[in-house]
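Quick sanity check, 2-polyprenyl-6-methoxyphenol hydroxylase-like FAD-dependent oxidoreductase:
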Amino acid sequence: MKVLIIGAGTGGLALAHLLKQAGVCIAVYERDLAPNADTGGYRVGISPAGSRALKACIPGELYDLYVATCARSPRYFNMLTEQLGEVLSFDIDDASPNALDGEKNVIRKTLRRVLLRGLEDDVFFGKTLETYTNFADGSVTACFQDGSFATGDVLVGADGTRSAVRKQRLPEARLEDTGIMSLGGKVPMTVETKALLSDKMFKGMSLIMAPMGFGAIIHSLEFADTRSDPGFAARWPDFVEALDEDSIGWGLWGARQNFPRDPAGLSGEQLRELGLEITRGWHPHLRALIRMTAPSTIHDVKMRTSVPLTPWTSSNVTLLGDAVHTMTPGRGAGANTALRDAALLGRMLVAADQGRKPLVEAIQAYEVEMLRYSTEAVQESKKQMDAGDLAHRPIVGRVQLAATRGVMRTINAIPALKRRAFRQMMRVRGEN
C-alpha cells in the first residue's frame, strides 16, 4: 500500500511516522516552500491524551525529543476575574497524577521540526494540491499546482482549515464564523514580567472571564533547564538552537459587536492599543503585560468552526485534523484531536495493509469513530467562543457572569465537585 498525505502539520506527520514504522509506503506533500516556513512561534497545548496518541505514532527516540523540547509543564489551571481574583483553580498534578507526562506546552514550529525528523526523504515541500482523481483500479492520483502528480492507494487530507482535499471530497462541508475575534502576543520572561504574575499564574495556565463576554489567557513558557542541560546538548546537538526563549504569552478575545474596532488589517502597534482599550479597568498587571509586548509579536485571529457533518460514504480518500473538524481554541482540543485521528487512522490503515481488514472498511471504521469524538469536541469548543451567547450582552451577560463565577467558587470549595469538573474538562480533550 502507498499512502499519500497532503499536509505536513502535526496530524499528518504523526500519521506518516506510524505508517512508516509499520512498513507502509508513504509520501507527504506540503504547500510550504521549506521546512522552516512555519515561523509561528506560538504555543500549542498537548493534553495527556494527546501525548499518548503521539507516543503511539512516533519512534521512542523521537518521543523523548518531543518531551525534551516541551516547556515546563503547567501545574495549575486557573479561572480568574479580570482583576485576577481566583474563581476556580485545578492542581493538575493532584487531579490527574497518573496521566502520561501530564499537560504539555510546546512551540508549534519546534514540534513540527521534531516530527520532520526521520521523514526527510518522505516530505516534499512546495506542493500545493490542485485536485485529485480516483481510478477504477482503486488508485488515486494527486495533481499539484506545479504540474507534478503522485499516485497511491490512499489519499489523506491533513491540509488544515483551508483543505483542498475537503473542498473536493466533501463539498457540502462548511465553516462558520463564530463572531469571535481575538488578538495575542508574547513578552520575554524577565524579572520584571515575571513579577506581574502570581505564583499560580506563573506555574500554570490562566483563563480570565470578564464582563461583556471578553476573555483572556495567560501562560508562561520556560525552557531554561533544557537549554542548560548538557545531556540534551549531547543527545540532540542540532536542537539546542531550536529551543525558544522563555516567554509569557497572552491572548484576548470577545464578540465582534463588542470590539471597539475591527482588528483585521491593524498593525502590531495598533493591536496593542486595541488590547489596552479593551482591558481598560482590568488589573494593572495584565495591562502592563500587554503594554510591554513588542508589536511584532502581536497578531489577530478570526475564530471559525466546522459545521458538524453527517456520515458519508467512505472511499480511499479521507481527512484528519482541522481539514475535517476545525474548532475554536475554547477547549484546547484541536491539536489533541488531530493526534487522536492520526493514531486511529494509522491503526486502521496498517490493519488494511496487513490484510486484516478491507481498505474501505478500515477507513469507514476510522471515519465513524472520528466523527463521534470530533463532533463533541467541535461543539464543546464552540460553546466557549460563540458571539451569540448571552455572556456577550450588556445586562444579561453580567448576570450570567456573576452566576457562573458563583458556581465556580462553589466547585472550588468542594473537592468532590472539583474532581468531577476537572474530569469533564479533560474528557473533551480525549481523556476517558
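Posting the structure with no commentary besides this: The mean pLDDT is 92.
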